[in-house]
């Protein structure tokens, strides 16, 4: 198990895997086979609604059905589809507030992160030779805002280390080398680093608008909060005031040891269960059978952790209950296309051909469902890549999707059946993250949600059409669709960078430089684009700007060891390698 609890008070059984030892259990009944005979649970606790598929018989469980909600910012579709099957959903403060706004009265506050004494500890004899440390993922698809702070941190004139891929004792040892640990909760949550930093003897530097951390730590007493105005100054101050830093660390350690171990947090969550043992909420049970089965299958699909056969079974049951056949066949096409990703080439092509034919047939019969056309275009592109042929069909299909979605946006329609269902591609990339963040707030205003999803789909389709046009050396068309992508979601840095890349190919250097500049403000750690931007500045004869940019990026590279390999190519981009 992964919970620390009072065994004299709670009898907890863990059943994380089904009979094959690999896939999640299909049902609670299946889980109970691994438990003592005649053992009847009062509570079913489903771990992480966004990551683990629902058990088939959750609707019939007679006790209290509970889940926790993690990663709501990137698992929002699975959350929206599945949370209504539970009596209680335990989550962080910001997600709790969103769920309440969406009408989910089953949301409860709970702290899902904690410190672990065996790992989060001070190791004697380790020199604190890192001024400011961050250990964590740098994927801008999810952590875009955090990366902007890390870029700012990396340029500071002190010993900064920004890294990833350290776990267990290696993580502990590295944390023990830090004087200050930078943190940023992507959802405004008190994540694991909140507790780990002080327990490893470092001062926690947390974002000022993290309301959940403000509940437990006071500024300048247990940690230090940063904002746009004080970031660099506050770091420099505490690096030169060691006694104050030590006082803050000890105060935080005392609070954490007293109130924030795994046992403390688990006990509080279990107390919520005890206080609500007789509650039966589960709003999704009042939905028509076809919609319940559809939501079941959506939740399974978007976890990315469910055998395709389970999802297909739910889709078939939804159809038998009267669900719209076109949407369900689209679901089957999306499931098969996702399954193709992990297959060898011939099997992959067969699955994609099946998915493509199904989505295309339904599009021809039900042209109001734009998601079918988006799926057809995306699968056409994948098939063209496999066959190593131009993606002509994909471009036409995705262009048509852009036109239809744009017209729907202009019509201010209150009908959203065109974009409500399985969306393919589904790869846990930026496209998925954007859809997740929109869907998380779906119930607050469904019309606003539908229009945002249409904008995201226009952005995705336009980006793909533009890339295909670049491959075909059709630069005017590539620029046209890159501009559509920028206009659709101007806050998305990748479309600015794509437009800059194409404008450079066209030798429109001034505008290309402006696009690169805007894109790198949004995505400053997109180091592949550093090479392109530096080369574009050089081609435009703007050598001083190129040199200044290179010098700044070299400093950032020095602070981020995982991207050290980009140093020489970056210098070579302007002839200095």
How far apart the termini lie comes to: 52 Å
Largest sheet strand order: 6-5-7-8-9
Mean pLDDT across all amino acids: 95
Number of strands: 9
Cα shape: flat
Q: What percent of residues adopt helix (DSSP H or I)?
A: 40-55%
Number of helices: 24
Please give a structural write-up.
Helix content is 54%, strand content 7%. The chain is of the alpha/beta class. The longest helix is centred in the C-terminal third of the chain and has 26 residues, at 446-471. The strands form two sheets. It has a five-stranded parallel β-sheet, sandwiched between helices. A four-stranded parallel β-sheet has the order 1-2-3-4, sandwiched between helices. It is flat and about 70 Å long. The protein starts with 27 loop residues before the first helix and ends in a 5-residue tail after the last helix. The mean pLDDT is 95. α14 (345-365) runs antiparallel to α15, α15 runs antiparallel to α16 (392-411) and α22 packs antiparallel against α23.
């Amino acid at each position: 198990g992964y919970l620390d609890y009072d065994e004299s008070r709670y009898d907890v059984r863990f059943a994380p895997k089904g009979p094959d030892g690999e896939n999640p259990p299909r049902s609670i009944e299946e889980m109970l086979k691994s438990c003592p005979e005649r053992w009847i649970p009062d509570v079913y606790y489903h771990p992480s609604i966004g990551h683990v598929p629902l058990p088939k018989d959750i609707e019939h469980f007679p006790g209290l059905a509970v889940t926790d909600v993690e990663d709501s910012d990137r698992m929002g579709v699975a959350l929206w589809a599945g949370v209504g099957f539970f009596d209680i959903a335990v989550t962080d403060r910001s997600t709790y507030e969103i769920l309440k706004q969406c009408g989910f009265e089953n949301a409860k506050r709970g702290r899902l992160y904690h410190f672990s004494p065996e790992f989060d500890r001070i190791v004697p004899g380790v020199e604190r030779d890192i001024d400011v440390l961050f250990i964590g993922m740098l994927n801008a698809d999810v952590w875009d805002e955090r990366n902007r702070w890390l870029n700012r941190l990396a340029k500071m004139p002190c010993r900064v280390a920004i890294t990833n891929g350290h776990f267990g004792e290696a993580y502990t040892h590295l944390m023990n080398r830090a004087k200050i640990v930078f943190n940023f909760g992507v959802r405004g949550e008190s994540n694991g680093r909140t507790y780990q930093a002080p327990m490893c003897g470092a001062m926690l530097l947390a974002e000022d608008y993290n309301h959940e951390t403000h509940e437990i730590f006071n500024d300048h007493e247990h940690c230090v909060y940063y904002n746009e105005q004080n970031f660099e100054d506050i770091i420099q101050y505490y690096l030169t005031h060691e006694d104050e830093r030590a006082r803050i660390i000890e105060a935080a350690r005392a609070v954490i040891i007293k109130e924030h171990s795994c046992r403390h947090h688990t006990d509080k969550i279990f107390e919520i269960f005890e206080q609500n043992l007789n509650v039966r909420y589960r709003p999704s049970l009042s939905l028509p059978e076809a919609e319940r089965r559809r939501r079941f299958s959506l939740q399974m699909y978007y976890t990315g952790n469910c055998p395709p056969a389970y999802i297909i079974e739910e889709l078939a049951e939804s159809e038998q209950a009267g669900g719209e056949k076109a949407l369900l066949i689209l679901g089957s096409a999306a499931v098969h296309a996702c399954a193709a990703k992990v297959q060898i080439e011939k099997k992959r092509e067969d699955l994609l051909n099946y998915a493509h034919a199904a989505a295309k047939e339904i599009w021809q019969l039900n042209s109001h469902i734009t998601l079918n056309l988006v799926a057809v275009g995306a699968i056409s592109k994948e098939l063209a890549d496999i066959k190593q042929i131009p993606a002509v069909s994909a471009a036409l299909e995705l262009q048509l999707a852009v036109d239809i979605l744009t017209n729907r946006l202009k019509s201010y329609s209150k009908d959203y059946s065109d974009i409500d269902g399985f969306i393919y591609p589904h790869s846990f990339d930026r496209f998925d993250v954007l859809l997740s963040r929109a869907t998380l707030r779906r119930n607050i205003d469904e019309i606003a949600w539908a229009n945002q999803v249409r904008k995201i789909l226009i952005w995705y389709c336009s980006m793909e059409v533009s890339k295909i046009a670049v491959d075909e050396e059709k630069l005017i068309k590539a620029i046209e669709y890159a501009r559509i992508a920028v206009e659709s979601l101007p806050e998305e840095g990748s479309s600015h960078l794509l437009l800059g890349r194409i404008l450079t190919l066209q030798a429109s250097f001034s505008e290309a430089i402006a696009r690169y500049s805007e894109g790198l403000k949004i995505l400053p750690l997109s180091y592949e684009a550093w090479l392109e931007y530096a080369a574009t500045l050089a081609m435009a004869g703007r050598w001083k700007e190129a040199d200044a940019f290179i010098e700044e990026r070299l400093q950032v590279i020095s602070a981020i060891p995982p991207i050290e390999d980009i140093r020489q190519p970056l210098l070579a981009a302007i002839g200095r390698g």
